[in-house]
Structure formats: C-alpha cells, structure tokens
C-alpha cells in the first residue's frame, strides 16, 4: 500500500520523537504524583474515619436525649 505525499509529511521524525520524549513525564515525576495521591487518600481515610466516629457519638447522644425526653414526659403525665 502506498502512502500519499501528504501522509508522508505527517510521519514523525527522530527529532519529533526526541522532543516528545522531553515533554513526557519522567519516572521521578510520576513517583511524585503517586506519592501525592497516596497522601491525599490517607487524609481522606482519616477524615472518613473521624466522620464515622462523630456520627456514632451523635447517634449515642441523640439516643440519650430521646430517653431523657421520654422519662420527663412520663413524669409530667403522672
């Protein structure tokens, strides 16, 4: 199969590939990005754990408040 002159001009040269390689992220850059993502994931995990602990504490306090309200209503109804 023959390529047209227009297609031939669109082929990448060695110099084009060298320029592209310089623009691509290095292994070190990728490691920095992954370490940053790992740090963010860890922070999110801590926040999520704290949120769940706060929700459990809130539910426990709400149960105590509901129990107290129920007792007070019983005493005032007598």
Summarize the structure.
The protein is mainly α. Helices cover 85% and strands 0% of the residues. The radius of gyration is 32 Å and the shape is rod-shaped.
Could you explain the architecture of this structure?
By secondary structure, the chain is mainly alpha-helical. It is built from three helices and no strands. It is rod-shaped and about 95 Å long. It starts with a helix and ends with a helix. The model has no long low-confidence stretch (mean pLDDT 87).
Draw up the topology in text.
Elements: H1 5-9, H2 14-23, H3 27-77
What is the strand content? under 5%
Shape category? rod-shaped
User: Could you tell me the mean pLDDT?
Assistant: 87
What is the count of DSSP helices, taking H or I runs of 4+ residues?
3
Percent range of helical residues = over 70%
Uncertain stretches of 5 or more adjacent residues:
none
Rg, rounded, reads 32 Å
Q: Give the end-to-end Cα distance, rounded to a whole number of Å.
A: 99 Å
| Quaternary structure of the protein | single chain
Structural class: mainly alpha
What kind of sheet is the major sheet? none
- Annotation, overall tally of beta strands: 0
Helix and strand run = HHH
Provide the descriptors you would attach to this structure in a database record:
78 residues; mainly alpha; rod-shaped
């Amino acid at each position: 199969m023959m390529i047209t002159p227009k297609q031939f001009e669109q082929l990448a040269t060695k110099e084009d590939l060298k320029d592209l390689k310089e623009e691509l992220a290095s292994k070190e850059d990728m490691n920095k990005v992954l370490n940053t993502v790992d740090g963010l994931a860890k922070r999110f995990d801590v926040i999520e754990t704290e949120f769940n602990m706060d929700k459990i504490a809130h539910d426990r306090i709400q149960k105590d408040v509901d129990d107290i309200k129920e007792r007070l209503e019983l005493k005032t109804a007598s």
